């Protein structure tokens, strides 16, 4: 076998790791690459193996291990990594509850004018919300909802934008967002959902409304 031949032994781990990755055999890749990276000396292209190992953990939704391996790969490249990997690092941090780390990674990707940038902007907004930086979240959600690459992301970002604006007490902005939401996403089920959550932005509490307005309010108020 090539792996037992001293001339080929250093290059085999990277090749085998690529094969596991292309086959989608993430469990096999995790087992093989983890052992390969423990060898002394390290195999050739150890940084590439580290990246593939991190992505295998990412695909398995084991975000802690994914982030650890991605960080090691990024360190080997002195932080010069592809935007797609930068996004994965940010998303992994978000899923682990490391919102500061998520913000640091995602904000560099969110400026892109493509679907990756739109997705990054949305999760950047979610991270800002969790970090209680709601004004920054408004900016991120606004960018995500204005992009046209992924309609589902735009829809969710619009809902989140309205929610954050309401929490900030910006009721005129809530009304404007809701009107835009209904215009762009007119599906009945979505309208019903927005009606429940955003009701306080448009109507006083039920005990303060006159009875004749109750039925009308229940069908026309907005939710998120």
TrEMBL record:
> Cross-referenced SUPFAM superfamilies, in alphabetical order?
TPR-like
- Known InterPro entries for this protein? TPR-like_helical_dom_sf, TPR_rpt
Stretches that traverse the bilayer = none
Q: Which protein are we looking at?
A: Tetratricopeptide repeat protein
